[in-house]
Specification:
There is one protein chain. With about 290 residues, this protein is mostly helical. It has three domains: about 110 residues, Serine Threonine Protein Phosphatase 5, Tetratricopeptide repeat, CATH 1.25.40.20; about 100 residues, Serine Threonine Protein Phosphatase 5, Tetratricopeptide repeat (Alpha Horseshoe), CATH 1.25.40; about 35 residues. The chain is elongated and about 70 Å long. It starts with a helix and ends with a helix.
Length: about 290
């Protein structure tokens, strides 16, 4: 592993430039959390479970914070080390501790993509929906394409249509960052297809990003191509001229087929329980597959 200053320093040429950059890094380290990281923080971040247990046995406070209010639990979750996170929690680590930037261990776990850490944190009472200027954990998971983390949060009754003022709903964020697998799962689990970021819908986001696969997915799940955003533009207005996205949207300008209308009507009637309810309808398997987009 390279020293931390090698990650921070820009590419420089000449001894004087290097010295200037090194001085700059020193100032950063003194003012930031790297200056007062404890051995507990380092062991947690590197996933050294035995060292972590030894330090705790020696009396290290598991809730020791850096000047930026970063705990060892933050570090364990950022590194995706579930065993270390569990030991810290079992020894009294504060599960909802927030750094000066409002970052929680759960947010770090979603950043790292560790569904195991997310699950353990939720078991110990982590709050998944926090009033903060930062994205919520589910938005962070979706942004990075960590579908398992997203599903774990949703299994713990996180609102699938939770609208963050800055980032919109999880579905809107998945479309913005072109996380197709997350889009598929959110739609499958009943996310509202036309709810995005204020008047901007997920279809607007997909058209803006030229994501033809996502545009088709949204349309199949009943996205309304005629809805207009705050600029009075529909999704077609945002599509690149003569692109595949424009073609896909033009093909859906007319009325939907009777089969599609029936599918959407049944799914709306069943609501978010559609995934499990369809199996209880005792329909022929081809009809079940049609209703579940298989």
């Amino acid at each position: 592993m390279c020293p931390i200053w090698e990650l921070y320093l820009p590419h420089v040429s000449g001894r004087s430039a290097f010295a200037a950059s090194l001085n700059e890094f020193h100032a950063f380290a003194v003012s930031g959390s790297w200056a007062d990281r404890s051995p507990l923080h380092d062991a947690a971040f590197q996933g050294r479970l035995l060292s972590l247990k030894t330090l705790i046995a020696q009396g290290f406070n598991v809730n020791l914070l850096t000047t930026d209010r970063v705990s060892a639990l933050h570090e364990a979750c950022l590194g995706g080390h579930v065993a270390c996170a569990k030991v810290l929690l079992e020894n009294g680590a504060q599960v909802n501790a927030a750094s000066v930037d409002g970052v929680t261990p759960l947010l770090n776990a979603c950043c790292s993509g560790s569904a195991a850490c997310v699950s353990v944190l939720l078991e110990f009472g982590a709050r998944a929906q926090l009033g903060s200027h930062l994205p919520s954990p589910i938005h962070e998971a979706v942004k990075r394409g960590h579908r398992e983390c997203m599903e774990t949060l949703l299994a713990h009754e996180v609102d699938i249509d939770q609208e963050d003022p800055q980032h919109g709903t999880p579905l809107y964020m998945a479309c913005t960052y072109q996380r197709t697998e997350c889009v598929k799962k959110l739609l499958e689990l009943g996310a509202s297809v036309n709810v995005g970021k204020r008047l901007d819908t997920p279809l607007h986001a997909a058209a803006r990003k030229s994501s033809v696969e996502i545009v088709v997915l949204l349309a199949d799940y009943g996205a309304n191509p005629k809805l207009r955003n705050a600029d009075l533009k529909c999704a077609l207005d945002l599509a690149t001229p003569h692109s595949k996205v424009e073609q896909a949207l033009l093909q859906r300008e007319g009325p939907a087929s009777l089969a599609q209308l029936c599918r959407l009507c049944i799914r709306r009637r069943l609501g978010r329980s559609c995934l499990s309810a369809v199996h209880r309808l005792r329909l022929p398997e081809p009809l079940q597959d049609f209703l579940l987009y298989r």
